[in-house]
Amino acid sequence: MQFEDLKLKRQFLNAVADLGYASPTPIQIQAIPRILAGQDVIGVAQTGTGKTGAYVLPLLQKLKGRQEGQPRIAILVPTKELALQVHSAVQGFAAHTDIKSLVLVGGVGPKTQIAELEGGCEVVVATPGRFMELYLKGALVTKKLHTMVLDEADRMMDMGFMPQLRDILEVIPRKRQNLLFSATFPQRVERLADEFLLWPTRIEVTPEGTPVASVDQYVVRAPNVQTKINAVLHWLLDSHPDSRALLFVRTKEDAKRVRQALEEALPKQVAEIHSNKAQHTRLAAMAQFRAGDVRVLVSTDVSARGIDVPETEVVINFNVPRMSDDYVHRIGRTGRADRSGMAYTLVDPTDEVALSRVLERLPVDGRPEDLELSMQVERVETPPWEAKAMARTIDFQKRKADPTYKGAFHEKKKKKGGSRSSGSKRRKRG
């Protein structure tokens, strides 16, 4: 099937051609006709499957030309980076029209965005918090909104946006078309869909929570942090010396530590993004990575959803993500736009519980393979302080799984205390 078969107007066909898209993706083939027909739609599709175009193209076509004033389409996304990415896509698809789009996100003062809204637009791409802030200031008028899109709905639920979304639903017209797109469809997203959509058509182009087939996935066990860093350097310097790589970590502290370690071997080739970074710093790092000026981008999960760089060839999970959804999203940064990709997940003893949970949720044919740590990677002895920290973490994991488990540290303490008590009694008798 070709884009012409989807009954898109010439200006949008020209835009698609300009952007280099040869043919529609499965999600676009299924979603575009239904959205053009005015149906509410749930789209379950991974990032990188063309889902942004699946809703942006038909919605732009449904707009009846440029109308100065109030927005008619609102697209809500969980992060600033994703908002900028979707806004860029809207601009690209609307290049041969006079349709105007604005991006409304936090991290910057609202004055500029208020002034832009006064100039009028047809489309707003916003994070929920900034949407409500501008509405309450009277700058964002919602009376003419006829379409609401929730993109990355699962991430919105993970980030606790449900109260803001309910507030937004109270201030927009009840008569509207609703679209919800998500890479996964857990119960919390299903509850959101029940509140948000009316008799929706559900489109699922890949099984829920399935990693993309174009990504080769490997699990590699390493005993400690320094050995993990050595493995990463081996992959970046020896196995994939010319590839751009995304390296995901669990916390902001991990991001800083790993970035500093990598910079010693790869000076000026490593950038870092996480929620504590100023917006201009995060945007600059993203721009450098997208342009190929830096080879490695270190990111936390919170920042992951806004990363859309088709040239990314390698994804490295420095820690096992706690949820299978996060695993799918992480490795979905590579193997995009008909390209193949590699995904490595490093596992130390504290990661085994999380790995088991991830594997349980993945289909058998979508699970990563075990890969031995290369002999070229230097194995470092685990420092005593790290071994102790790991032991405590594993104890905590076991107690969480089994409340009756006392733990190694508890047993040692008990024996020591028991010895003192026995000695005390003997002295008293003597």
Describe the structure.
- The protein has 430 residues and is of the alpha/beta class.
- It has 17 helices and 14 strands.
- It has helices spanning 10-18, 26-36, 51-62, 80-93, 111-118, 128-136, 153-158, 162-171, 187-196, 225-239, 252-265, 279-291, 301-304, 324-331, 352-361, 384-401, 408-429, and strands at 41-44, 73-76, 101-104, 123-126, 147-150, 177-182, 201-204, 215-221, 244-249, 270-273, 296-300, 312-317, 341-347, 369-370.
- Strands 3-4-2-5-6-1-7 form a seven-stranded parallel β-sheet, with helices on both faces.
- The chain is globular, with a radius of gyration of 25 Å.
What is shown here, in short?
This protein has helices at 10-18, 26-36, 51-62, 80-93, 111-118, 128-136, 153-158, 162-171, 187-196, 225-239, 252-265, 279-291, 301-304, 324-331, 352-361, 384-401, 408-429, and strands at 41-44, 73-76, 101-104, 123-126, 147-150, 177-182, 201-204, 215-221, 244-249, 270-273, 296-300, 312-317, 341-347, 369-370. It is an alpha/beta fold.
Radius of gyration: 25 Å
Query: What is the number of E strands?
Result: 14
How many domains? The number is: 3
Quickly give the CATH architecture of the largest domain: 3-Layer(aba) Sandwich
**Average predicted confidence as pLDDT:** 85
Distance from N terminus to C terminus (CA atoms, Å) equals: 96 Å
Query: What order do the strands of the largest sheet run in, or round the barrel if closed?
Result: 3-4-2-5-6-1-7
Q: Beta fraction of the residues?
A: 15-25%
What is the number of helices?
17
Oligomer: single chain
CATH class of the largest domain: Alpha Beta
Tell me the helix content.
40-55%
| Main structural class | alpha/beta
Shape: globular
